[in-house]
Every structure is written in structure tokens, then in C-alpha cells.
């Protein structure tokens, strides 16, 4: 067993099964493996020195690129819809249209701010966003072994990529599927590209008929990293899957539901990070 998994604070619903999956993946070889991960609070820190770290949306919302009036409206949306997102008594079918409504409204507000593309790097640099401890080892190791890292995020792809870029680990094997800004010729935000990506539709099946999907058809062994119920379906659509090891990060009381029900093979609490 991997030494880190022997930490008493790490929870495994079936240690023997975890061992079997890992052994099977090692035997199959790195050329059969892909890593599928959420971004906010999974690859990034949930908190540092007792202070919450920002998500991709928070980085932008908290910046001076957003007017105070807009910040108030975004906060009102959060207070309205976030309790719905974390309400375990509601079904995904019930939450889905409300989540789409939330982020559609939020994106419309951001577009009204006429955000400039050339200021995004500065906004990220001035924020408190940071990747998790050990991120460089993870990103570099995957790159050195040519293992694809697919990041599915309901956040803002432009901000997400900048966080990784400034950390010096945006390697060619990293592919990001998120909500991207669409800028006009002068570099001013005019819309968001394509279909809205939210917590309930970010999955590998969405890549069907793309070059990325064809490339991944020969990689039936999946390491999935997430921190919520919505992240558990990110590997849906993987072709002829042989093994999947789901590792979840217990950041706060909100996402203990998915872990306590044993939906992740391995659960890592905040205190062990």
C-alpha cells in the first residue's frame, strides 16, 4: 500500500479493493492510465493559514475589475442558489435547471463588466489562489510519464489556466474543459463560449467525437480526483473502463455527504493535507 494511504486520517471504504485497483493499474502500465480531476478545492487549496482560498470565480469576483454593485448582485445569487446546490434532500434533476439559471445570470453580470483579457494575469497574481501542497510533484510526474491530466471545471477556464501557468506546471499533457471567455478584437469580454459547463455535466462523455476522446480510448484505467457528489460522474463516457480509483477531498462539512456514503474509494480530510 502507498505510505500516504496508511495515514490514520485517510478513510478507505475497502482498503483491499483499493490495493487491487492500484496493483492492476501498475501492471497495465502508465500508457493505459488517465487522470480526471476537478479544479477548485481539489487541485487548489481549500484554505491556507486558517483563511479560505478563492475559487476561479472568487478570484474574479473579488478583484477590482468588478464593480461594487456587481459584487453585491453576485453575492445575492450565491446566497440564493448555493443552499440549493448543497441541499442533500433535492435530486440532481431538481437542482439542474436552478444551477444553470445561477451561472447563466452570473456570467451575464460578468459580461456587463467589460473585463479586459490583458488584466487577467494580474488579477490571478494578486489573489490568494494556490494549488495544493505537492502539486509540482503530481503535475511533473504525470508529464514525465505522458499521462493525460484532464481538468473538468464549472469555473472560468481563462482564470484556471492562468493559476496553473503561474505555478509553472501547465504542461502539454494538461487539457482543460471549462467555461471560457469570449473577447472581442479589442480584448474586452463580450460573452462566454459554447454551452455552460456546470457541476452536473462536466464529464468525459462530453468529449465524444473530439480528438481528445479518440486519444483517450486506449486509456481504460482512471484516477479520479474530486471533492463533491457532482465530481463522481466526471469519468462517465470513458471507453471500456477497466479500473477507476476515486479519491475525494473532505474540505468542509458540506461535502462529507458523498464521502460518508462511501462513494469515493479514498477520502482525504483537510487535516491530513
Short synopsis of the structure:
By secondary structure, the chain is of the alpha/beta class. The protein has helices at 15-28, 56-61, 68-85, 92-112, 120-126, 135-144, 157-166, 211-216, 256-260; strands at 11-12, 33-37, 47-48, 51-52, 149-156, 174-179, 181-183, 189-192, 221-226, 243-250, 266-269. 36% of the residues lie in helices and 18% in strands.
Descriptive overview:
This protein has 273 residues and is of the alpha/beta class. Helix content is 36%, strand content 18%. It has 9 helices and 11 strands. It has helices at residues 15-28, 56-61, 68-85, 92-112, 120-126, 135-144, 157-166, 211-216, 256-260; strands at 11-12, 33-37, 47-48, 51-52, 149-156, 174-179, 181-183, 189-192, 221-226, 243-250, 266-269. A hairpin with a 5-residue loop joins strand 7 and strand 8 (189-192). The radius of gyration is 19 Å and the shape is globular. The relative contact order is 0.18. The mean pLDDT is 90.
Question: DSSP strand (E) fraction?
Answer: 15-25%
Structural class: alpha/beta
Q: What is the number of helices?
A: 9
Shape: globular
From the alpha-carbon coordinates, what is the Rg to the nearest angstrom?
A: 19 Å
Helix amount, in percent?
25-40%
Mean of pLDDT: 90
What is the number of strand segments? 11
- State the end-to-end CA separation: 18 Å
EC number: 3.1.3.5
Organism: Sander lucioperca
Catalytic activity: N(7)-methyl-GMP + H2O = N(7)-methylguanosine + phosphate; CMP + H2O = cytidine + phosphate; a ribonucleoside 5'-phosphate + H2O = a ribonucleoside + phosphate
GO molecular function: 5'-nucleotidase activity; magnesium ion binding; nucleotide binding
Amino acid at each position: 500500500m502507498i505510505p500516504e494511504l496508511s495515514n490514520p486520517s485517510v478513510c478507505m471504504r475497502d482498503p483491499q479493493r483499493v490495493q487491487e485497483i492500484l496493483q492492476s493499474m501498475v501492471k497495465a502500465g502508465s500508457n493505459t492510465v488517465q487522470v480526471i480531476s476537478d479544479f477548485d478545492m481539489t487541485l487548489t487549496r481549500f484554505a491556507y493559514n486558517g483563511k479560505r482560498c478563492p475559487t476561479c470565480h472568487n478570484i474574479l469576483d473579488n478583484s477590482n475589475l468588478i464593480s461594487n454593485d456587481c459584487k453585491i448582485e453576485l453575492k445575492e445569487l450565491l446566497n440564493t442558489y448555493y443552499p440549493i446546490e448543497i441541499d442533500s434532500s433535492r435530486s440532481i434533476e431538481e437542482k439542474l435547471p436552478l444551477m444553470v439559471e445561477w451561472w447563466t445570470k452570473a456570467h451575464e453580470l460578468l459580461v456587463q463588466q467589460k473585463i479586459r483579457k490583458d488584466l487577467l494575469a494580474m488579477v490571478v497574481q494578486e489573489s490568494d489562489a494556490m494549488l495544493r501542497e505537492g502539486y509540482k510533484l503530481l503535475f511533473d510526474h504525470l508529464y514525465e510519464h505522458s499521462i493525460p491530466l484532464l481538468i473538468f471545471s464549472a469555473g472560468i477556464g481563462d482564470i484556471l489556466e492562468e493559476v496553473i501557468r503561474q505555478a509553472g506546471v501547465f504542461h502539454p499533457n494538461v487539457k482543460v474543459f471549462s467555461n471560457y471567455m469570449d473577447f472581442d478584437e479589442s480584448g474586452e469580454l463580450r460573452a462566454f463560449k459554447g454551452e455552460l459547463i456546470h457541476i452536473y455535466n462536466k464529464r468525459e462523455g462530453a468529449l465524444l467525437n473530439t480528438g481528445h476522446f479518440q486519444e483517450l480510448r486506449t486509456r481504460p484505467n482512471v484516477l479520479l480526483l474530486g471533492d463533491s457528489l457532482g465530481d463522481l460522474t466526471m469519468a462517465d463516457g470513458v471507453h471500456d473502463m477497466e479500473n477507476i480509483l476515486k479519491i475525494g477531498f473532505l474540505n468542509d462539512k458540506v461535502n462529507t455527504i458523498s464521502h460518508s456514503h462511501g462513494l469515493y474509494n479514498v477520502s482525504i480530510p483537510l487535516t491530513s493535507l
